[in-house]
Design goal:
There is one protein chain. The chain has 25 helices and 17 strands. It folds into five domains: about 10-95, no CATH class; about 105-180, Arc Repressor Mutant, subunit A (Orthogonal Bundle), CATH 1.10.10; about 195-265, Arc Repressor Mutant, subunit A (Orthogonal Bundle), CATH 1.10.10; about 280-480, Ribonuclease H-like superfamily/Ribonuclease H (Nucleotidyltransferase, domain 5), CATH 3.30.420; about 495-555, SH3 type barrels. Helix content is about 40%, strand content about 10%. The chain starts with 10 loop residues before the first strand and ends with a helix.
């Protein structure tokens, strides 16, 4: 019986290669497939550009690989067994694995190459080194080198000839260089598919746009452009994608996402506050809440909160709410900071209109908003010697307060009290109950104030200085250990709003401001005079501070509140004020040593002289005695004698009567 003839072929499946037990080829189909993927058998081409992998015909499918992708020992074994033509054994090294000997001139260059190798190459080198180390261990146990190689090869499912090849490779290499020496060096033999320059320029230009088109759309338009240019042979879409993946990431991000996104490719600076202390450095900014609010005047909108945060402890020290971020709101929140905690050394701000206003930072040399004029007033912060530092605009990482605002948006704005009023943080992130209700401004402020206080007192904070404590604790410990510049009452007045051209009422000196009346007993002497009033617009029921028009501080006046028509308590209080006023006025009058009415009358009588000389006339008119003048002179009746003592008595009695009436009226 004749044996079947052996069929010589050049294409083999992974199952066939595993069954042939060729040197340097795994003996399990799965491992052959892993080797094919690691070494890129499917991407290799021969010198003519023909692929060295093809789909397998028949049931089950899969891939078939040309024998030239196999190691030299495996190809030689195929020819020796008559399974492949002799041309396979003579295949060019460029078409298969090149087991290039590590003949680097220096260990540095060898390890430099190894450091740039792929992860699969390094894994294979480590696997080979482990096999050789096992051979050494078995040989040390008493077996010969051949027996040790056979034993390890069998346990590792490797051909003994492959192990001998590895041993010969490291024979002349130092033990410390075995790992890079054993690393396989593959040359896939694949040739790069050339992309016409004009098509690549079109593809790259279309894809690198800020509208961020997809690769599929870009390739489709490139095909249209190729037809216009008359190019008939076009590489595949994957070829274009692989080429695009080689574009530097900074260029891709810059062109597709913009400069701000490209800036984020550089790691942020990590700044330390370990050498600082509480209230040394603060930062301030405004935050718009994502909550619909009904304001007292009936309008609706979102509230702006201007807050000041201590950078050392991250505690929020002061905050005020309003309908917009204005210089007035900034001025008042700094007043709260000065009154409650004191003056900081440095303030970090952005150059928004409210913070860069001349009333806040006027006079600061590094103020980069608005023109700096010679006659500009000195701003609030420079007036108290507070250094102003400016953060970069639109850079949340430049101000730690932005991290706190993010917590506000994620937790406080989503409070249960705001259900239905929360508007979402973007147009695309609106809740299902968007705009279903509005929360009253007073209720909103009450919740926000309580939640910010809770934010400060929450334990478990993991910042540089809190270390598991709270912002309140961290601030209190440092605040108690450092000297603080406290604000005086007159310094706080500088932070308030001023209303110029205000006059005291003509009769009482009281001041009317925004529908309220303010008065104190000392204001009587200010009746009708021009005044300057400093006040807190958010607390109009508190006192106001009255200044003279020329600048000096005069007094503080409380509100003169309106009362009910039949309210007795306020009536009695006013009567008491009246009595006190009269009583104090009498005491002041007594201290002035005024003259009594009798003393005044006596001095008035003494002023009348007994023998006043009558000056002679300088012009004399002649008196006629004839005619009508004579008749008149004859008819004249002589006047009675003048009694001087009687006249003085009657005058004194009249003065006494008038003075008595004045005293009774008082």
């Amino acid at each position: 019986m004749m044996s079947a003839p052996i069929t010589r072929k050049e294409w083999f499946s992974s199952t066939e290669l595993a069954a042939l037990c060729l040197p340097g080829v795994p003996r399990a189909r799965r491992k052959v497939n892993v080797r094919a993927a690691d070494q890129g058998w499917a991407d290799r081409v021969d010198d003519r550009g023909a692929p060295l992998a093809r789909p397998r015909d028949g049931r089950g499918g899969g891939m078939e690989y040309h024998a030239s992708v196999l190691p030299a020992g495996a190809r030689t074994e195929l020819v020796k067994r008559g399974l492949a033509p002799e041309t396979v054994a003579k295949a060019e090294p460029s078409c298969c694995e090149q087991q290039v000997e590590a003949t680097a001139s220096t260990p540095e260059s060898l390890w430099s190459w190894y450091g740039k190798a792929s992860a699969s190459v390094k894994r294979e080198a480590e696997r080979r080194l482990l096999v050789l180390l096992q051979v050494d261990e078995v040989e040390k146990s008493g077996l010969t080198r051949s027996a040790a190689v056979s034993t390890v090869a069998m346990s590792s499912d490797i051909a003994p000839s492959t192990v001998w090849n590895w041993i010969s490779r490291v024979a002349s290499a130092p033990r410390t260089d075995w790992l890079p020496t054993l690393a396989p060096r593959f040359s896939t033999g694949a040739r790069k598919t050339e992309i016409p320059a004009e098509l690549w320029t079109f593809y790259e230009s279309w894809w690198l746009r800020q509208s961020e088109p997809t690769h599929a759309d870009t390739y489709r338009r490139t095909v249209t452009e190729a037809k216009r240019l008359g190019i008939t042979i076009l590489p595949s879409a994957k070829t274009f994608i692989r080429r695009a993946e080689q574009i530097p990431p900074e260029i891709v991000v810059l062109k597709r996402q913009g400069p701000e996104a490209a800036r984020l490719l550089v790691p942020a600076i990590e700044r330390s506050v370990e050498g600082n202390h509480a209230l040394e450095l603060v930062n301030a900014d405004g935050h718009k809440w994502d909550v619909g609010v009904r304001f007292p005047d009936g309008s609706k909108g979102r509230v702006i909160t201007v807050a000041i945060q201590d950078i050392y402890s991250r505690k929020f020290l002061a905050w005020r709410h309003g309908t917009g971020e204005s210089a007035t709101l900034v001025r008042l929140v700094f007043m709260d900071l000065f009154r409650n905690w004191g003056f900081p050394d440095v303030t970090l701000l952005d150059n928004g209109r409210a913070f860069a206003s001349k009333w806040i930072t006027g006079g600061a040399k590094n103020r980069y908003r608005y023109s700096i004029k010679e006659g500009d007033p000195l701003g609030l912060l420079p007036r108290f010697g507070i250094d102003v530092q400016w953060a970069l605009p639109h850079r949340g990482s430049s101000k730690p307060i932005e991290r706190g605002f993010r917590d506000f948006a994620q937790t406080i704005a989503r409070h249960a009290a705001f259900d239905g009023a929360w508007l979402g943080n973007s147009v695309a992130n609106k809740p299902e109950n968007y705009g279903s209700r509005l929360i009253d401004y007073a209720d909103f402020v009450k919740v926000i104030d309580a939640e910010i206080a809770s934010h400060n007192s929450r334990l478990g904070r993991d910042t540089e200085m809190t270390k598991g404590g709270s912002f309140d604790q961290t601030f209190a410990e440092s605040y108690a250990a450092v000297p603080i510049r406290r604000a005086t009452e007159l310094q706080l007045h500088e932070c308030m709003l001023s209303a110029e051209k205000v006059r005291g009422q003509r009769d009482t000196g009281a001041v009317r401001l925004h529908g309220n009346q303010y008065w104190t007993p000392g204001m009587a002497e200010l009746a009708g005079k021009p005044l300057i009033i400093r006040y807190d617009p958010e607390n109009l029921h508190s006192e106001i501070h009255v200044y003279d028009a020329a600048g000096p501080f005069l007094l503080t006046a409380p509100i003169w509140a309106k009362t009910g028509f039949l309210t007795e308590d306020h009536g009695r209080a006013r009567m008491k004020i009246e009595r006190d006023l009269v009583k104090n006025a009498r005491k002041d009058a007594e201290l002035r040593n005024l003259l009594t009415s009798q003393e005044l009358a006596h001095r008035a009588l003494l002023a009348i002289s007994d023998g006043d000389d009558i000056p002679p006339p300088k012009v004399v008119r002649m008196v006629r005695t004839g005619g009508r003048a004579a008749v008149a002179a004859a008819a004249a009746v002589p006047a009675p004698d003048f009694d001087r003592e009687e006249y003085q008595r009657r005058t004194s009695a009249a003065l006494e009567t008038q003075l008595r009436l004045v005293r009774d009226q008082e």
